[in-house]
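Consider the subject:
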Amino acid sequence: MFHRNFVATVVLTSSLFVFVNAFNGDMTYYDPSIGTGACGKVYSTQDMVAAIPVSIFNYANAPANPNNNAFCGQQARITVGDKSAVVNIVDKCPGCGGEGIDVSPKAFEMFASLGVGRLKVTWETLSPGSGNKVNPAPTGATPGTTSVNTPGVPTLVSTPSIPTPVTTPVVPVPPSTPGIPAPVSTPGPGPSPNPTQVAHCPNVNQQATPVGRRASRIWGKRLVPAEIPSEHA
């Protein structure tokens, strides 16, 4: 039981040593676009990436597949005097001696022109590796400051919300139909008004014919029945 716990403690201590140790050596530059790195990806000269010595990359108990190496995807901070920059470890460097580090041209130019070729630096790892993953692009060197990125935490960009215009449906207005005037009722030709009936008054000079078939020729005299001539007279 004691032996098993002792071995576990040694392995844990060895792993922590890999992640937090600081190194001192020469910094050179290389072209990361010429092929796939040990971590399984290809990068450009404008990426902030680095390769570390094989002797450090192949730490104790490192996986056989380099893509799963604990250094893949780790960030390292490089310091030269009062300048520093952060790079992503993406490859191993067979030609790097001791504790040197090989970086992309863009990372090297954070400290000096490419014509310098080699610089004495100090570099240290910042976070545990995630295996075949690259953390967010590190920032460049800033004189007098140390730039450190927190891996795996995306930067949230606040975008002002743009109110969505409310679309009011347009109700089509039916075309105005000119009104048709109602037909004017023209009274048809009706019966001619009755002519004024004029009462024909008898002539004042005329007298009604006395009852009977014989009219009396006697005017101005009221006849009594006895004076009316008989038909048979």
Notes: The radius of gyration is 64 Å. The domain at 22-123 is CATH 2.40.40.10 (Barwin-like endoglucanases). Strands lie at 22-29, 49-53, 75-80, 83-93, 101-103, 119-125.
